[in-house]
Design brief:
Its cofactor is Zn(2+). By secondary structure, the chain is mainly alpha-helical. It contains 20 helices and three strands.
Length: about 500
Amino acid sequence: MTAYSELSAHHGRIAALSNALGILHWDNAAVMPKGAAPRRAESVALLQVLRHGMATDPRIGDWLGEAEADDGLGAWERANLREIRRIWTAETALPADLVEASSRATSTCEMAWRQARQDSDFVGLLPHLSEVLRLQREIGQAKGEKLGLSPYDALLNDYEPGGRSDQIDRLFDDLAAFLPGLLDEVLAAQARRPTDAEPQGPFPVETQRALGVRMMEALGYDFDRGRLDVSAHPFCGGADDDVRITTRYDENDFSSALMGVLHETGHALYEQGRPQGWMSQPVGHARGMSLHESQSLLIEMQACRSREFLRFAAPIMRDAFGASGPGWEPDAVWRRYNRVAPGFIRVDADEVTYPAHVILRYRLEKALIADDLPLAELPAAWNAQMKELLGLTPPNDRVGCLQDIHWPSGGWGYFPTYTLGALTAAQLFDAARRAVPDIPSAIERGDFAPLLGWLRANVHAQASLLETDELLIQATGRTLDPAVFKAHLRRRYVEES
């Protein structure tokens, strides 16, 4: 075997182990009984250590050196080597005992978070979250020393390869300056709209689920390679060719679960659209979380809150619940689904206020990783940031600093990718409509094939062949440009009103 084929076979085995871990993580969140948590944590920790051992195999360095000197490799193979070296460099920075300790800590903390969130009990979560944070600082420090990055940037790099906090600071500071004035304009425009009657529940969970499945099928989700379930926090997970999504239901408000389904379906379409021939190789992975979040936000926000989509979907919603009345008319549904109002919960936030939720978390997690903010002071710091950015003070920690699973589960450095994803989604959707002018009218017919076809060709099937900026330039003609997102917000929330 050549050095490249040795690397390819080795990473195929790593992918198989990662797939098993993916299904275990889904099971943890969706169906595992609470009493199984300690044993499950042991199993997951062992598998994480085994995967880390495979990813840091000393032979990889030798194989890489030999394969990189092979002039006979094509573009995909060369990109695969780049990704393998990136992963190997980061993984070899971590000792196995740190990987195991972090896995155990996050498994324990995630289970504790579920109860703490329900009880609004930050004090009860504090010792578990403190251990997760301590280990994340160690991981960031170790990777940072190897990569020449700050601890926070080293953690960010796991989710957004090549992403740097100084770039994000500039983007987020610009948005933080732009959004308050826009919000004033939006609220003034919104006040001139008609006031629509709210649909009255209850909305049975089984009917909500059937509606979600109908919309997933319209979007192009392949149920032969995935499923829809329930969890405390909606997510997309699973394994290659087994892409599972979850949502959560409220019988008094079906829109939250439906939009959660649409959002996670956007993630799932990306995963299902990755190139089959490279699925088990690093080059076949999704490029990074800003692109991943762009796919969920493009589907949920750009496409499925558009007038075109809601002209298609409103009658289906009305019929599903056996409802009638002016509140179910497409224009009324559009106004409701695009209503702007500062709120406490990130996953329920509108497009205009959503970036403030992300900026808040980004600033806090940077300060926590740098040890500039004691973890015990997180609730007070959270509330102060929310007051500054959104003019609100959470009444309890359940709707404040306990609402997200990311920090308990070890996702430090993930949050900024949500707003990077929103900017990217606007730019990609704008490019798709310019390239395929029929996309809006097709969406109005419930036909997502033109949009999905463009995304498949320009994003999904590209996987990690290109760096993020290179992919954006190829797909849209430019690097990330916040002006496209700003123009979208003004057009939808001020001019269309």
